[in-house]
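Key idea: predict the complex, not the pieces.
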Amino acid sequence: MRLRSLHIARLPGIRPGFTLDEFAPGVNVVVGPNASGKSSLVRALRAALYRDESRHEGVHVEATFDDEDANGTLAALRVGDDLHWQRDGSPGEAPALPERRFLSCYTLGVEDLLDDAHETDTEIAERLARELAGGYDLRGVRESAPFRLKSTHGRKEANELAEADQELRRRMQAQQQLQRDEARLDTLRAQKAEAETAGREADLHERALDLLDKRRQHRALEQRLQEFPEGMERLRGDEPDTLAELRGRLQQQETDRREAADRRASAEAALRESGLADAEVDEGTLGDHRPALNRLQKIETQLEQKGSEWAQAQATLAQTVQALGGEPGQTVRLEPATIGKVEQALEEKRQLDAPLRGLAHELDQLPTGEAPAPDPGQLRTARGELLRWLAAPRAPVWTATRILAVLATLGAAIAGITLAGLEVHRWLFGLFLPLAFGGYILILRPAAGDTRRREAEARFRESGEAPPEEWDPARVEERLAALDRAVVEAEQEDRGIERRRVVARERDAKREVLAAVDERLRGIAARVGHDPDELNASLHRWLKLVADQDQARRNVKALRAEHERLAAEAERLRQQLLTFLTQHGEAPDIEQPGADALADRIDRLAARLRQREQTRQDIDQADREMRRLDQEIETSQTKIRGVFERAGLAPDEDDALRQRMERLEEWQALTKELTNTRRLEIDRQEHLSDRNDLLQRVDDEDENALCSRRDTLREQADSLEELIQEITRITGDLERAGHERALEAARAQHQQARERLNDRLDEALYAEAGQFLLEGVEAEHEQAVQPAALRQAREWFKRFTHYQYELVFAADGETRFAARETTSGEHRRLSELSSGTRMQLLLAVRIAFALSAERGTTRLPLILDEALTTADPERFRAVAESLTVLAREDGRQVFYLTAQPDDARYWAEYAPDAHCIDLAERRGRARAVDAAEALAPAERAVVPSPDGQSAEEYAVTIGVPPIDPWSEVEAIHVFYLLRDELALVKRLLELGVNRVGQLETLLGSDAVDTVLSGEQREWLRARVEGVRAWIHAWRHGRGRPVDRAALEASGAVSSTFMERVVDLNHRLGGDGEALIERLAVGDVARFQTDKREELRAWLLNHGYISGEEALSGLEIELRVVSTMRPWVAEDGDLTGDARMLVQSLEGGLQR
Amino acid sequence: MKLLCIADIHLGRQPSRVPSPVLERLGGRELGPAGAWARAVEFAVAQGVDAVLLAGDVVEQEDDFHEAYPDLRRGVERLTGAGIRVLGVTGNHDVKVLPRLAEGVPAFELLGAGGIWQAEVLAGDDGSRVRVLGWSFPEPVVRVSPLASGLPGGDAMPTIGLLHCDRDQLGSSYAPVRSSELREAPVDGWLLGHIHKPDDLSGERPDGYLGSLTGMDPGEPGAHGPWLLEVAGDGRIAMEQVPLAPLRWTELDVPVDGLEAAEDVHRLITEMIEACHAEVGAASHRPDAVGCRLRLTGRSDLRAAIERSLNADDPKAGVYERDGIVYFVHDWRLEVLPAIDLEAAAEGTDPVALLARRVMLLRGADTDARRELIAAARERMVAVPRERPYNTLGAEPPDDERIAATLEAAALEALDSLLQQQESHP
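Result:
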């Protein structure tokens, strides 16, 4: 279905409407500046095709199509939300259009193509994935264990192996070192023995020199000692100190002697002054009188106490007499009869007292007076009158109602009687009288009660009581109640008065009896001499008072007798003590001295006795001290004399002694040194007793010879310690090696590490085998069932990118579409592609899918809205060409909308049949393309022709890079494969194919048939395989070039050596083997052997040094031939072809 | 006359692939060459042999004078002290150690020092005599046949050749000799060292490798130990292997056909070990430990479940002790086929069919298609050992046989995975 015309009557954003027609059946380029309505064309067309587009926007669009399938026309009229179709001018059914959700596959905007997460792409991918899956998750199997290994797989084990390798090397080196050490042992032991001998000999020479030295010292000392006075040897050195000490001590002793004599004289004077010098009294005698004194002191205390008690007893006796009512000094007489009488009388009083108190109390409660007021009788009379007043009858009250009722009744009665009498019986008049009397009684009779009340009132007044306030019943009843209360009170008072009189009489009678009893008691009191009131109080108390008095009297008597006895005893003791004190002049100067005064005197006498004893002791002590000091003075004087005598001097030759003492220290030092020197001399000589040669040299005093020999020997002996240490270390290492077996352990560790890595290698091989199988199965299956859309999209994409990329589709995963760079083989996700390449990829996918999805439906035009804006000219051309082919071969109508006049020029170049529509012009606006030149074809890069040039010259012309044998095969320029086919090189370059990777892609694409002949394809494939075989063969036995990064990664080159090693490596062109060799011969000074070995191991392990021989040219050629053989026809000159290829490639090697 | 013949002791090595619990229990040295050597020495003393012959490679490292050498010397001194002559030739591993031993222990007799054939006559108590011809490696690498230099002439008495060499490996660096040379030599038997797998020397004319004294890794399965050579009075020679090795390696097939539950595979394994023990335990000389490699074979639709069960309860983690012999599993391989008709499955066009076709191809005859498949895989697989981090091994690229085996195993597992998908998403 091709669009013939489009009329936009109404569309939001478009005013006024416009019509476009005469579209070409193929490519239409619509050029118009921004906002000229290009995008509105797309909207209008979508609205004309699908009812659900632009709903509720009030659009009015008409579109006319050529229906090539039905060979007719179709018209779509979209007004508002209604869409009507006409076929050949008549209303008809809508054509079978592709699903609306894939509409974006037909209308491709730049925004859609830059959005790599567009929902359409996702849906396309999902549909493709479903078709490709075949019901199995092959990728799932491929991506899971054991076929997918982690990127770190085996690294740990490799590191462990490297460590184990290093450890084993270390151990082996240690082992070798141990062997070298062991080989040195005998030599070291011999050297040790020599050093020991030399050491001993050096010691002997040392002693000889020492002996010589001592002899010389000996002689010098003796000379100096001869200069001292004789007798120096007698001095001890402490003579001055001894003398000073002895003299000081003597002086002190003499002073002490004098002081002792003075103390004796003082003591004798004190003895005399005591007055007891000759007395016989002593402490014992004094002690004999102490008990008497104590007794006296005790008796005096008792006397004082008894005197006090006596006075107290006398006072008590006086109080008892006074308590009984007697006079002081009076004696109370009591008999049992008297006491009985008193007791009886008192009992009688007690019996009377209680009733008397009760009667008195009752009298206090009773009313006084003779008669009650008012009189109860009067009150009762008044009360009776009031009652009578109240009892008198009272006339009823005449109310109006009552009167009317009575009158009516009476009237009725009278009327009745009258009628009855007149009509019936006359006798009935007789009833009238009693009735009239009754009426009188009821109504008219005067009140008899009033009289009685008046009489009662009069009598009441007579009673003298106060009348009611009013004489009405209420007031009268109130007064009656008050009178009732007054009557009761008056009657009670009357009864109290009567009782008072009775009680008073009874009290009086009992008082008389009591008075008689008191009289009797007073008589008894008078008789016994006591206060009758006391008798009257209580018999018991009285009896107690009497007993107290008797007891007090007895106490007074006993205390007086005791006091008198004690006074006599005290007097006797006092006299005894006074007699003793008087004998020793200590009698008190008062009369009747008390015990305290006597004690004071006795104490004074005792003090005098103690003073006499102390004085006597002082005299004895002074005598003893004077005798001791006399002896000590004699001793000191003897010692002083002895000091001088020992020094060989006369006593008191102090000056001579001082002079000798001043030189004594020097003399002693010299003497001591001489002694030592002698001893050492003998010692040295004894040590050399069997070495006459040395003694002879000493005797000859040949010091120089001895020193020289000693130094030589000492130097030889100095290495002994070092030798011993070295021997000990070696023997220790040997012993440890036997025990520890570190080498065996390192070897075992190494073996284990190898095995572990080997296991990982097995796993990697297994995984690789699995990947290989599954990839093959996947590719085979995919190839077999690959959806046409995907196949088409791949083809489109390859064309669009000039075979630089291949479309990669992942049946699962987050990113379904990706691209593989043919030169490197690397996969790139959409996000990693340039925007141009990404747009090309999505363009290819959508177009291909649109073509595929529309099967069975009407084919729609493709509309690209500035979809190639970001493409470079070459890619633009590729897409344009593809779309042109599509338009031509598929009969597809294509619209390209652009604001860039250059785009129109490009289209004019790539698709000369393209129909250019100036939208601005159609809409009556400014032209977008202002001149024919604007549509002139753009300049294209022209690939130079090889004509007239040698292959090498042509390579220079087209800029062929040299071959880096360590980079990917795909990056090698096609020139090296086609050195003999330069025209084909040019043709490929024009197609944009310049690398082996692109060539491989081209060879695998459907388009290859249009570019290359079948024969060309075959030998090109053979050469591509040959290149691969060559590069593998070339690398065999060669290490990859060493660079700085490798040297740093090895860890064997420290920063100290890095620059020098890098420089050397640079000079050697990165040849790892040569580098190691140069390091071994010392090109880098001080680079250690172990580091060199470490570097070599690393380079070997990482492919920088090959452990194998490089292949010869012939071997390489054979391998290439072998590889190319399956691709070349039997009759071809395979060997020559392969040789040419190998030579071409080797000629292109980077130098 | 009785001679005890020993080769390839490789003192200084420890056995590999022995799990830690076994090593801790039995000791690495005791299970390795040192233990085997000690056993052989005591056996020789106990048997009262007339001489012990050493066919080279007695130590792992030619200059291991401080760890392996003391072991060697101790054993030799024990033998010579017991009146047993000890003769030996150097191999490529011990060109330094044995000469030193000859210096240190004069009773030890190094034959053919410097690469010059030497003959020594041994006389038994019974009057029997035998001549021993020996040649020693003068240096670790010898690229020419020792027999090219000519042997001493023949003698009437029985003659035994004692040699360390690489038989029928012409490019070898370790004294390559041809079988024909050996056959044509004027000797009554060759006792060879270098190849660790023992030949059958029990024939009338013993001629072959003695094998390593003990298997040092799973690659040396079967019985190992010294050989007892007896020379009869009439000059006839008879040899018998004495399986003294303390450690033995073996491979056990565990067929899982008819297995009803995957977990039962452990029972099968135990049964196989029991069966193995019935044979090993009944031998006159029993090893201390037996390392087993399990091959799970047969056809089962429980393949994946069996694998899961083995991974969950790994037999490698267990140690089985039977009558004092410790059995351990150092490896297991699942070679079980899915229980499907491969031919029928291969007729389809889906991935399962494509994989089934490859399995059949790999298991089938050596056709062009099979070779092509292997060649295509080789392109990729030979690169793997060269890649990091495996390149540090310096491993040889896999040969076609290994490639085919690996492909087949991987194809089976992939096929099984796809079938599992089919089961879970019918």
